[in-house]
Amino acid sequence: MTRRIIIDTDTAQDDCIALLVGLLDPDSTLEAITMVAGNVGFARQVHNAFMTLSAADRLGDVPVHLGCERPLTREWISAENVHGDGAGGMHMDLAGLAPESEHGVDALVRLVSENPGEIDVVAIGPLTNIAMAIVKDSTFAENVRSLTIMGGSNNGRGNITAAAEFNFFVDPEAAVTVFGSGMKITVVPWAPLTLNDAVFGADKLAQIAKIGTPLARFFTKVCAATLDFDESVGIFGTTHPDSLSAAVLLHPELITSVSDYNVQVEASSDLTRGYSAMSWGVHDLEPNAQVVESVDSEGFFDLICKLLSAPTSPYREIAGLL
């Protein structure tokens, strides 16, 4: 079944691969890309999104909207120390290209209100845009078909502090708003899910390199900087939580274990800011989300390889795409 989706993103590294999933998977119709303050600055996000559209030979097909340029109440914190420019040094002439004039939050509200119950949102950055849409339009939460969130850890380690995963840490107030909205939510957590099931080690990266298509070369290049960082912190491969989030929405058969949880995000403590407390049903708390606990990691890898094997030709030349 084809899904109509919006990807809300802070476009760097695996966000780009998630966009490729939305663009290339035959079970997906990507209605819009909305951007939120997160991994890298907005100018670089725009650059990376347009390059990804070009790599997929879809430039001009999907509107790009700029959303909230800072968290709800806090200063923006980037992850440029992890991602660099988020594109492995690639760049493209953007002459004649520009994001839509409509704000990302307005685009979310409009598209969902015009198509109630028909659009799935995949949020792979901080949840600022989603929270703002909930606040702006009281019907947004009920009109969204589903929300898939890449964020948090299932009572586990963070990746920006000992307690917190980056997306929830950057805007914990937004996360609190979203999990209290009543929306149908699926969470794809950083730990343990990504670390167990969505790391591509040297053998898998070599298989992707052998594919030899422009898309496979784009993948290798865009993930290079993050690979260096991951290896420096003891993760021996590239991490793919964002593309996994898009993949499990489109292909729920990849999910091998999922359970109902009550998810609450810490927004008051400095020490545990952004911590996601995920109650698994023994604390008399009403579930507000499904949390993915494990996936078919080989099936996910095979899906990525299949998509990267598509014989596309970049719409515009991408400098640095070898």
Helix-strand layout with pairing:
Blueprint: E1 3-9, H1 14-24, E2 28-35, H2 42-55, E3 64-66, H3 80-83, E4 91-92, H4 104-114, E5 119-123, H5 128-136, H6 140-143, E6 146-150, H7 166-170, H8 172-179, E7 185-188, H9 190-197, E8 199-200, H10 202-211, H11 214-222, H12 224-232, E9 238-239, H13 241-250, E10 255-265, E11 276-279, E12 289-295, H14 297-308, E13 318-319
Parallel strand pairs: 1-2, 1-5, 2-3, 5-6, 6-7, 7-12
Antiparallel strand pairs: 4-13, 8-9, 10-11, 10-12
Helix pairs in contact: 1-2, 1-13, 4-5, 5-8, 10-11
> Number of domains in the coordinates?
1
Q: Judging by the overall fold, what is the CATH architecture?
A: Alpha-Beta Complex
The sequence of SSEs as H and E is EHEHEHEHEHHEHHEHEHHHEHEEEHE
How are the strands of the largest sheet arranged? Answer: 3-2-1-5-6-7-12-10-11
Can you tell me the CATH class? Alpha Beta
Describe this structure in words.
The protein has helices at 14-24, 42-55, 80-83, 104-114, 128-136, 140-143, 166-170, 172-179, 190-197, 202-211, 214-222, 224-232, 241-250, 297-308; strands at residues 3-9, 28-35, 64-66, 91-92, 119-123, 146-150, 185-188, 199-200, 238-239, 255-265, 276-279, 289-295, 318-319. The mean pLDDT is 93. The protein has one domain (3-319): Ribonucleoside hydrolase-like (Inosine-uridine Nucleoside N-ribohydrolase, Chain A, Alpha-Beta Complex), CATH 3.90.245.10. The chain has 322 residues and is an alpha/beta fold. The relative contact order is 0.18. The longest helix is centred in the first third of the chain and has 14 residues, at 42-55.
